[in-house]
Amino acid sequence: MTPQIESESARETTKEDDMGFYPQLKGYDPEQVDVLKLEFDKYTEDFYHATSYRVNPDTKTMEFTYPSNSGSDSPPTKPLTDQVAELKTRQDSTEAAMLALMDTTTTT
Predict the structure, then answer these.
(1) Which residues make Cβ contacts (< 8 Å) with residue 13, sequence separation at least 6?
(2) pLDDT attached to residue 70
(3) How far, in Å, are 9, 69, 102 from residue 62 at the CA level?
(4) Mean pLDDT across 38-57
(5) Residue 23, phi then psi, degrees to nearest 5
(6) How many helices (H) and strands (E) does the chain have?
(7) Could you give the dihedral angle defined by the CA atoms of residues 28, 33, 36 and 40, in that order, rounded to the nearest 10 degrees?
(8) pTM over cut 0.85
């Protein structure tokens, strides 16, 4: 996981750049290392609130573990940012369907 930097001199790096720069990656075969690139500021809140995070190797997506009210961590899950966006989309669809249904029942 490489840090997020916003600067005039910051540039997007390649996998080869990262393999040569980060000591943790030296010695690994680049063909066996995969890269997940996130948009700038993507999941900032999730990284801040999560107790841990990982890349799911099967889905190649981020998963976060968040603290729960029970005192133990929740199992790894998709980012809350994505969950909220999906719920908003579903809510918008439900509201549109309800409005269409109400419009149909009031005009008949």
Answers:
(1) 2, 21
(2) 67
(3) 27, 23, 40
(4) 89
(5) -60, -30
(6) 3, 2
(7) 30
(8) no
Q: Which tokens go with 5?
A: 């930097």
105: its two tokens: 């029942």
Q: What is the pLDDT of residues 49-106, one digit of tens each?
A: 899 999 998 999 999 998 876 667 778 888 888 889 899 999 999 998 888 888 877 7
Signed CA dihedral, 87, 71, 4, 24: sign only: negative
Give which of 53, 46, 43, 42 is closest to 76, Cα–Cα.
53
SS3 105: helix
Identity at 33, one-letter amino acid code: V
**Based on the number of CB atoms within 10 Å of its own CB, is 47 exposed (0-12), middle (13-18) or buried (19 or more)?**
middle
